[in-house]
Write a structure and sequence with these properties.
The structure is a homodimer of 326-residue chains. The first copy, chain A, has 326 residues and is α/β, with parallel strands linked by helices. The first copy, chain A, contains 13 helices and 14 strands. In chain A, the strands form four sheets. Chain A has a seven-stranded parallel sheet, sandwiched between helices. A three-stranded antiparallel sheet of chain A has the order 7-6-8. A two-stranded antiparallel ribbon of chain A has the order 3-4.
Chain lengths: 326, 326
């Protein structure tokens, strides 16, 4: 089977994951790539269904994302937000004039009876993106952040409070009643699947909500294809966002090893940054295969290089599996 | 009682009525003027509660209305609408970026439990307008347009179809279950009320929806204060909009006399344009008092002059009533 026959299904959150997804998108044909996306960050705001991670992926693959922030639209205007501020409306969550159209359009599609999966496919078509972006579930699952004093809605914690409160526990409300979306489960069991890839999104805030769905998790753990991940921790620091702070608050060492430990039982192999090569043996001792490269994705070339490296690593695990089973 | 002690309650639709309301607003103190507004044009669009006539009045009195159209905001931008168009969303009803904030804000206030009256007062405060703009009802009443072949929602007829279909009948759906808003009824029965004024809005599309509420109508017909109106028909033509076309379709002569005939039993007096002075006797024969002046309001001075004239006409009717009852 040639390389171009394989399909790859990726689990992703927003900004961090979207970098690798863009790299894969650039080196694979549209029919080779499916992206299962965290919807634990979704919320209704000002009457609009907001899906931050889905939109970040759509905008990234459409080439219309704001390159500075990694989320929202490029060349965005903020006249709505200014007017709402003058009226005393809630402005803690930024909604650009063009971005609003996405939320209003999604609302309209959902009201007309489309599932979130269907509405996302419609939006993808309207943004001329051919890679399927698949919500993890068509049922709401909502990430909630527990602190010593209260339980916060995710966006309250993440955006309004700038991820400042110390986290004691994270829950994925509704996950026990929710099923994985049929499209997500199908993508994880596709014919000619070459690998399942966990992007270097925040494991607790972006990937675990997806894995909190028992059918998705068991489909992954029962899969015979390589499951590979990339550590979001490099040299004891997070590439971006609150991952390192969160790990400390949850009592972990901020290290690639901790990521390996967290994903033990899910991953066959973990890619860690070359700066963390000294942790390879310890990670192998957990039963994971490990490989090192540059995992910091600043340029598009970095993204494509890490995507290529990830596919090669998966192939290598696949071949190893074949060898050991033969 | 001096002139400045009197209060005036005005019935108004959107653009046409707002011209006279602005004139009254400029010559009266805020506590002297209340405006009861047609909500028959209101509709939910893209999940937003749109109140075209209320917003036209708010924007007009706030000095932020688009002076060219008479509706919408001045210096508006349309980035949302452009983006929605690219996504294939409904763009037949124009929603500017800043205008959207008004609808989103109203939705939020309604969701939080405010009545439409309360939400409108909140918006007025946020727009720094001190004149009460009062929805005719807190319950939906929806103007529907019957044609030979179908029944159209008002905005479908008025905006999407540009008022082109021939009208056979107009209904005010829900009017038999709806009550006038408490604030509207209070304004029509205020102490020291000097007059009830029907603006030269379209009688069938803007004023009749208000009069279709039985408690509002009986409060007006039972009122002892002068009820005066201004004809929207001048020299056989409508100043603006589909009034003349509609009158023809409903089988009427397009004349100030027809307006007088329509409002017989409601009005004590009608102001008609000086160009229609030849109709005064016929109108008096209907039992209405009548007076002529320039009723075409192009400039702010025109608006103030017609407002002054209207108040003087009401005073004259009031004095006449006093004389005849003494």
């Amino acid at each position: 089977m040639s390389d171009s026959d394989f399909k790859y299904t990726v689990l992703s959150g927003g900004v961090g994951g979207a970098k690798l997804v863009l790299g894969l998108h650039k080196i694979l044909a549209p029919e080779q790539l499916s992206v299962v996306v965290n919807t634990g960050d979704d919320f209704e705001h000002l009457g609009l269904p907001i899906c931050p991670d889905i939109d970040t992926l759509i905008y990234t693959l459409a080439g219309t994302v704001n390159p500075t922030t990694g989320w929202g639209l490029n060349n965005e205007s903020w006249y709505f937000m200014e007017a709402l501020k003058q009226l005393g409306g809630a402005t803690w969550f930024s909604l650009g004039d063009r971005d609003l159209a996405t939320h209003i359009r999604r609302r309209d599609l959902l009201v007309k009876g489309q599932t979130l999966s269907e509405a996302t496919l419609t939006l993808l078509r309207e943004f001329h993106v051919h890679t399927p972006i698949i919500p993890m579930s068509n049922t709401p699952v909502r990430t909630k952040i527990k602190t010593n004093s209260e339980t916060l809605d995710f966006q309250d914690y993440f955006v309004r409070l700038k991820a400042e409160p110390a986290v004691t526990e994270i829950i994925y409300a509704g996950n026990d009643q929710a099923a994985g979306s049929p499209d997500a489960l199908a993508a994880l069991q596709a014919n000619k699947l070459g690998a399942i890839i966990l992007t270097p999104s925040n494991p607790w805030l972006s990937i675990d909500p997806i894995l909190s769905l028992s059918d998705i998790k068991s489909t992954i753990t029962n899969s015979t294809v390589p499951v590979v991940g990339i550590s979001p921790i490099v040299s004891g620091k997070a590439i971006k966002g609150p991952t390192a702070k969160l790990m400390r608050e949850l009592g972990m060492d901020v290290s690639a090893y901790s990521i390996a430990e967290h994903y033990k039982g899910i991953l066959d192999g973990l890619i860690i940054d070359q700066q963390d090569a000294d942790q390879c043996d310890a990670i192998r001792a957990l039963g994971l295969q490990v490989s090192t490269t540059n995992t910091i994705m600043n340029s598009l070339d970095d993204k494509k290089a890490l995507a290529e490296f990830t596919l090669a690593f998966a192939r290598q695990i696949h071949t190893g599996n074949m060898d050991s089973s033969s």
